[in-house]
């Protein structure tokens, strides 16, 4: 099943805020029995993250919007696109960035989680692995995609190998879908792990794209293992290949 780029909730109740302002301007999270130590640590990072504040000020639904903006600035991903698919689109920040850059583009987002409507975007609450997903997305696009974006991430269980395999499965599912949606010369952008160094995945990408590059945009937290792969110049395989 597909994943989502939704983050953790704060777990704070009304009238009992999770934090207070400390010296130096940083937010100090109050410990509570309702949250684990790791949840408190995540919340502290989140509340003190300048990208979170910037996303709120700009009206973006998530800080992840800045990752796509930074990737676009580096690789000129969105300047000429007319048809765009966002896999794992919730909560919608990447769709917002696409429309900001290309207001007339046809943008289609899909996620297992519900997404609040975005004017100008067609949204599906659906699994990309469903048999009818390809036809549904192509129908909404009105043709093949210029770019397929994927910020999908598997829900983690805390076991390193299990989490790795779940995430790799999502990446490969996204690549398979991109191969069926993209026009010749199109682009695939996806979240990967640890620089995308998995040999099998890199080999698959190089078979299907003219260039494959790995990058960690500044908005990606330094402590995380996430990187992004930018694969450009899609080369469709012949039916007999």
TrEMBL record:
Keywords: Cytoplasm, Methyltransferase, rRNA processing, S-adenosyl-L-methionine, Transferase. Belongs to the class I-like SAM-binding methyltransferase superfamily. RNA methyltransferase RlmE family. Residues 1-39 are annotated as: Disordered. The active site is at 191 (proton acceptor). S-adenosyl-L-methionine binds at residues 92, 94, 111, 127, 151. Transmembrane segments: none annotated. It is found in: Cytoplasm. One of its GO terms (molecular function) is rRNA (uridine-2'-O-)-methyltransferase activity. The keyword Cytoplasm applies. Residues 1-18 have a biased composition (Gly residues). Its main location: cytoplasm. GO terms for cellular component: cytoplasm. InterPro entries: RNA_methyltr_RlmE, RNA_MeTrfase_FtsJ_dom, rRNA-MeTfrase_E, SAM-dependent_MTases_sf. Residues 23-36 have a biased composition (Basic residues). Its EC number is 2.1.1.166. The lineage of its organism: Bacteria, Pseudomonadati, Pseudomonadota, Alphaproteobacteria, Sphingomonadales. This is Ribosomal RNA large subunit methyltransferase E. PANTHER family: RIBOSOMAL RNA METHYLTRANSFERASE, RRNA METHYLTRANSFERASE 2, MITOCHONDRIAL.
